[in-house]
Amino acid sequence: MPNALSIMRLLLVPVFLILLLQEYNLAALLVLVFASASDWFDGYLARKLNQETKLGAMLDPAADRLYIFATLLGLAVNGNIPVWLAVVVIGRDVVLATTYPVLATHGYGPLPVHWLGKAGTFALLYAFPLLLLADIIPGFDHIILPIAWAFAFWGIGLYWWAGIVYVRQVFDLVTSSKPESANVFPEGKTDE
Fold first, then answer.
1. Distance in angstroms (rounded) separating the CA atoms of residues 102 and 73
2. Contact between residue 75 and residue 124 where contact means Cβ atoms under 8 Å apart
């Protein structure tokens, strides 16, 4: 059941992006809210029912990444956010993507989820619906936008901080003398 929710979230990414690009902002916002709620619910179910799996550990952050990417793309194309914001956030994921071949070359799997990455993702996934909401009810944008941008800047800072921590972990792992420490990450959880 939890993995089915994660798969459904993944399948809704293109629906969300199309709605956003077509400027059906309310419908896009509802899909994003549903996806966020199902993200929380699938994690809760997995823990409650003791159904945490390697697949779920990979699907969940993948869905988060895709929603972040789709939202950044849609908001930038529609002019809701400056392009630099999309570049800064996506740039962090590009930097981290370069670490995966390095880890694999040294016999290591993906890095475990770090709380900084979760906090950064959480802040960004709060900022995006608020940015959409400001466009949906422009009469309240003077209240909504400062909150949205506060979440966005905190999210960027935490997201990059987590990225630096991950790069440091990769450096420490590949320069250590014991490749057996690859077993430190048996769940196959990916970075957040």
1. 28
2. no
pLDDT tens-digit readout, 94-144: 999 999 898 888 888 777 778 898 899 889 988 999 999 999 998 999 999
The structural domains of the chain, with segments of one domain joined by +, span 58-184
**What would the two tokens of residue 17 be?**
């992006």
Closest CA relative to residue 18, chosen from 64, 85, 71:
71
Please provide residue 122's backbone torsions phi and psi, each rounded to the nearest 5 degrees.
-55, -45
What's the chain's length in residues?
192
Cα–Cα distance for residue pair 71/151, rounded to 1 Å: 15
pTM of the model: 0.79
- Give the C-alpha separation, 103 to 34, whole Å: 35
Question: What's the CA gap between 13 and 101, in Å, rounded?
Answer: 26
**CA atoms of 167 and 157, how far apart (whole Å):** 15
